[in-house]
Amino acid sequence: MLRIDVAHDAFALTDVFTISRGARTQADVLTVCLRGGGQAGRGECVPYARYGETLDNVRAQISALPGNVARDSLQHMLPPGAARNAVDCAFWDLAAKQAGKRVWDLLGLPAPKPVVTAFTLSLDTPAAMQAQATRHRHRPLLKIKLGTADDMPRLEAVRRGAPDAAIIVDANEGWTADIYADLAPHLIRLGVRMVEQPLPAGADDFLAEIARPLPVCADESCHDRASLPGLVGKYDMVNIKLDKTGGLTEALALRESALAAGFDVMVGCMVGSSLAMAPATLVAQGLAYSDLDGPLLLAEDRPIPLHFDDRGVHPPAAALWG
User: Fold this and answer.
1) Model-level pTM greater than 0.85?
2) 225: exposed, middle or buried (C-beta count within 10 Å: 0-12, 13-18, 19+)?
3) Which positions are catalytic?
4) Counting CB atoms within 10 angstroms of each CB, which of 95, 143, 167, 193 has the fewest?
């Protein structure tokens, strides 16, 4: 029998983090610890209000699991989402510790390498976003949070602040079809490489009616493998987040299915600690884009954090996860 413990942890952010849906000053996460066979495995999730999740209802889902739950049965006992993610990743960590091996060895995968990650610029005034861009212009890839009707000055300001950086844009469902149609040529003119979720999920049929010289990535529209059929013809790429897929198990399966269906793939994250990003470094290997910068936005992190340098985010130490 397993012992399942759930704890609420809060990590202060270095700066206020703002997207089109709101702002936050700390990352509130749930940490799951599975104990069995003399070992303990950990996983982290970030409950997300956009998907009807709260700290309380996700904790309740996890706490209701029986002590005889296994990783395979978990996939049917909980739906895709934050609760299943934390438990699934804790199962993988526990299995690695029990076997005395790394998770990638258990999965039969090559040892992961460092992966270049985007660094996210929070939604703000044009002047503030230009200052952010100038401060981080040395980074190889910047991700800009937009999603309002007045985004052109912000975009221009970021490009002034970081004239040589590669840029991707995330609208977080904040635009209408008319706004996106007006902005798209300017995104291309300013060298934007990709745009993420420009329209609300469920109101994105317009994307199938237009040419897409600028690749469009599904985020809120893509959760797990069941999402893929509805994305064909509208999106060129999917963003895999473990808090959406419900863990590493489904994330790896979604990656393979998406690539086989002809989608490019990026790996993203919610704003969480290094423990949340660690499993995603396995999924991120060899993909078009990675956005695993959550720990870079924190003023504090786990005691043994992920290592970031000019090569990107490195795979986790065994003492952190896996």
Assistant:
1) yes
2) middle
3) 145, 241
4) 193
